[in-house]
Write a structure and sequence with these properties.
Layout (H helix, E strand, L loop, with lengths): L2 H6 L11 H23 L12 E6 L2 E5 L3 H15 L12 E2 L19 E2 L5 E4 L2 E4 L5 H24 L4 H19 L5
Helix pairs in contact: 2-3, 4-5
Amino acid sequence: MSHKRKSKALVSGKDVHFRPIYLYFFMTVLMHDVEDSYRAEMGNAVHTHSAADPLFDLEYADDTVLMSGSSHSITKLLQCFQKEAEPYGMALNRAKTKLLVVNGPPASVVTFTDNTPVHVVGDNESLEYLGTILNRKGSPQITLTTLLARAKQEFNKLAQFWSHANIKTALEVRVSKHFFTLWFYMASRTSG
C-alpha cells in the first residue's frame, strides 16, 4: 500500500473536523507525500539545506512554513503541496499565503499551480508566524516592540475599570503585575 493510500484513509470527506492530534498526524503524512512528490520531480539534493532541497516540514495547526534558497525550488515545493492536498479537498488560503525573502534581493515570481503569483512581503511589511513577527531584514526588534504595544493596549482597556472601581492601590498594582506577566508570557507564545 502506498503512502498516498494510507493518507487517503485518514479522511472520508472534504468537511472533516479533526482533533488537533489527528490534524498533526494528517499533516505529517501529507508532508511526507509532498516530499516524495518534490523529490520525484527535483531529485535528491547533495546538501540538506541547499537550494534544491528546501526545509519545509514545519507545520503547526493551520500554519506551515516552506523555506528554500531559490525561487525555483520554492515554486516547485508550493505546487507539489497544492497537488498533494487537492485529493483531500484541501486548498491553500491564497490571501494568507505570503513569500518572505530574508536578507536578499527580491525573489523572482513564485506562482501557484494556476500561475497566479504569490504575494511577496515588501521591505516595509511584516508577517506573523506563531506569535513571532517576521520581516525581510530578519530583525527581532519589531517583535518586542509589537508585544509591548499590545500590552499597553490591554492596560489601557483596564484603565476604565481601575478609575471607576473602589479598589485599593496596593491591590491594583498587584493585579496589574500578575496580568502583565501572564499576558506577556502568552503573547510571546501565541499570535495574539
